[in-house]
Design goal:
Structural class: alpha+beta
Helix content: 25-40%
Strand content: 15-25%
Order of helices and strands: HEHEHEHEHEEHHHEEHHE
Distance between the termini: 14 Å
Number of strands: 9
CATH topology of the largest domain: Rossmann fold
CATH superfamily of the largest domain: Vaccinia Virus protein VP39
Radius of gyration: 20 Å
Amino acid sequence: MGSKILGLQTEGFVERNPLACMALRANFEGPVFQGDLEDDEILKQLHKKRTGYHLEITGGFPCQGYSRQGDQLGLDDHRSHGLHHILSYAWFLQADAVILECVANVTHFPRTQECIDDFALQADMTCHKLVFDLQHQWPVRRNRFWCYMLAKTFASFPIQPWPVSTDCQQLQEIMPMDAIWPPEVEQQLEWDANELAIYLNPEYGADQRLLLPEDKAPTVLHSWGHVHRPCPCGCRAAFSDHRLRQGGARGFGLLSACTGKYRHLHPAEGALLCTVPPDFQFPMPPRSALCMLGQIDSVASSCPNAVPNLGVDRH
């Protein structure tokens, strides 16, 4: 999204999540290669698009191995291998720049940081790392790690931290709290009996469940909207009751201005929390779109991805 705003053209996307592929095709012109980064055929197709221009590869590598909500296995989590594949693409495609993104907790995993540093050394690139805290700019608690590597043939420049702003520090300053959506959408977003039983029971965590106008919102997670259901992207089965009680059930919502009942945020409302441009399209049912919000690399921040993805930006 940031590349698009800057006028840069993304020449190709690689994504294995069908829902994410739908969103990419609905919002960007670059071709979407649906598949796994492990597939050499996809690498070959991207290599054909390498025509000698300055090449930047961006990759949000999976967070499950690093998130505090997960088992924190680091590189021992097979999903963390997405980082290796992104760096391999950068090596074989001879990228001039690489942007990596993950949850902020990845900074506490020395092996992963050494992997990034070793690549920068071998590829003769400068390496800049920073953790951005979205609540410095927006009424949402959201920390993300960014790493920018640039070939030493170019002048090096550091990533600048965000200044702290006193503007837009309450939800009511960015989002209407009483929006009414079509009846069928309101019905899909309404908390079902299981969600009510989980979210309103303190045994499943003391998280804030109901957003109020003067609040800051919790972090939007990939599991949002499917706390007791399998993830619609296929990355996991439904959480067990033991897991939810042990780690807490993450989720929050609003009271519907239409029905007075608890409901999840509409994808457009959740997109505002992630600083996603209002013209971004979600070509899937509202419930499925909620898990997408936990994957989107937004302009001001970026979220964990359930599966590896790769964007190839050619300037």
